[in-house]
Amino acid sequence: MNTMKQTAHRGIRRLLHLVLPPACAGCQAPLAPGPHRICPRCRTLLKPPPHPRCLRCHAPRGTGLPASRPCPECSDWPAELTRARTAVLMAPPADTLVHALKYGGWPELATFMAGRMTGALAPAELSAGSLVVPVPTTPSRERERGYNQAARLARVVAHALDRPLVEALTRVDGGGTQVALHRHQRRANVEGAFRPVEDLSGRIRSRPVLLVDDVLTTGATAGAAARALAAMGAEEVTLLTFARALPGDA
Known about the structure:
- By secondary structure, the chain is α/β, with parallel strands linked by helices.
- It is built from 9 helices and 6 strands.
- 35% of the residues lie in helices and 14% in strands.
C-alpha cells in the first residue's frame, strides 16, 4: 500500500507540474519553466564546510587548533573508512533538498546534488581504477520510497567521473532508522547491517572505492559499509556525500 501511495503521489506531482508553475524544491518559490528545480537564491545558500577542515573527514576544526589534535568527528571511525568528502553543510536549504530526494519523491534532484558532490573531490583524491559504490538501503525502505536515493546519486557521480558503478552491497532489514539515535547507538544499529553481493567480490578486490551516500552524520553507516567492502578486498574507501551534519548535531 505504501508503494502504491508513493507511486500515486509522484504521478499527481508530475501532473501538477504540467498545469501549474514549477516551484523550487528548497524554498517553494516559483521557477521559470526549465530543467532546474532549485532557485538561484537556494543555490547560493548551499555552503561547503568552512576551513580549516580535518584532513581525513573535512569536518570544520575551528581556528587556533593544532593539526596534530585528534578530530572528534572521525577519531572513532574504523580504519577501513579512509576519508570523507562532502559538498555542503546540512543547513537550510540542504536539509530540505535531502528530505525531498529521500522522502518526497524527487529523484530528479539527484542530478543537481551529485554535481555538487563531484566538485567536492580534489583531482588527486580520485584514485586511479576506483569504483563507485552506493550505500544500500533495506529492501523494505526501497519499496516504500520507490528507489534508493544513494543509488540515484551514485549513478550520476559515476557518469560524471567516468568510473564504473558497482552495487556491491546489500542491506539487511531490521535495525530501524538512524534518525534520533545518538552516536554510540548509531554504531550499534548498523553493526552487521551490510552484506557483500558475493559474485561482485572479484570486482572490488584490490580496487579503491568511492562510497556514495546522501548525508554524513556520525560516520556509523559509512564505517559499517566500509568494513564490509574491506572484507571484499577493497584497497581503500572514500566516502562522498551531498551534506554533512554540523559537528555536535548528532
